[in-house]
Amino acid sequence: MATLQSYDGTLRRRFQHREVESTVEKVYSTTIDKCGDYSKPPELPTWNKRETLRLHREINATADTLRELSPMEDPETISPEGIIRRLFPDPETLLCIGRSNREFKTATLAGFDDLKNHQFIVAAPMIARWGKTQTGKPSQHTKEATGPRAYIVCDFDDPPPEQHPSIIMQLMKFRGAALVLSSGGKSKHAWFPTTPHTDRDRIFWRTCLALGADPALYRNHSQFVRMPNGTRDNGKPQEVVYFNPNNITQ
In terms of domain of life, where is this protein from (predicted)? Predict the structure, then answer.
C-alpha cells in the first residue's frame, strides 16, 4: 500500500486515499477464471511528440485564433448556466456538478445556484441521483449512475501548452468542437460531440490520444471535467475561448 501511495506526487491528479485501498481490495477479492479469454485489449495510442510539434509549427494557432473562429462572440462572457443549457437542452437532464472533488451533487440544472463558483461537471447525463461507489458507498458522483458519454472531452496535459490550440485545430478538421476552454491553469480543454456510431467515436478517440489527450477521460466517462466559464479553486476563471452551440450531441 505504501509503495503505491509513494507515486502520488508523480500522477496527473492526486488520488484519494480510499482509491488505493479499494483497488487493492478489488484485486485480492477477484476470482480468476482460468478458462477465460485473456487476450489483451488493443493498446491505446500514446502521445506522438513529433506530430504535435509538427502541427504546432504548421498551424501555429493560439487562443486568440480560436476566439476569432468562435461562432459565438465573446464566449467568456456567457454564463455557465447559459452554456450548460445549450450543451444539455433537456431541462429534465440530471447533471453531476461540483464545487470541488468533495463537494458535489446531482440534480437538474434548475437545482443549482451560481455555477460560476463551480469547478467541475460530468460531461454525460446521469441516469440516477444516487449510485454506489466501488466500495459500495452511496454517492451522487459514481460511474454506476452515469449515463452514456455525451461529449468527448480532451484534456491535454503532456503536450506543451503552446501546442494545445494547434492540436485542437487539427482535431476540428475531423469533428466540429462544441467548445474550447482554459483550465484556469496552462492547458486548453476541448469538447467534441459524440455520435450514434460507436466505431467512429472510438476512431476519433484514438486520434485524440495520439495527439496527447489524457487517456483517463477515455477510460472513465464519469470523471469530472472543468466547468465552462466556472472558477478554479485558485480563483482563476475557466474561460471559454470557443463556443459553437450547433455542435452539440443530438
Answer: Bacteria
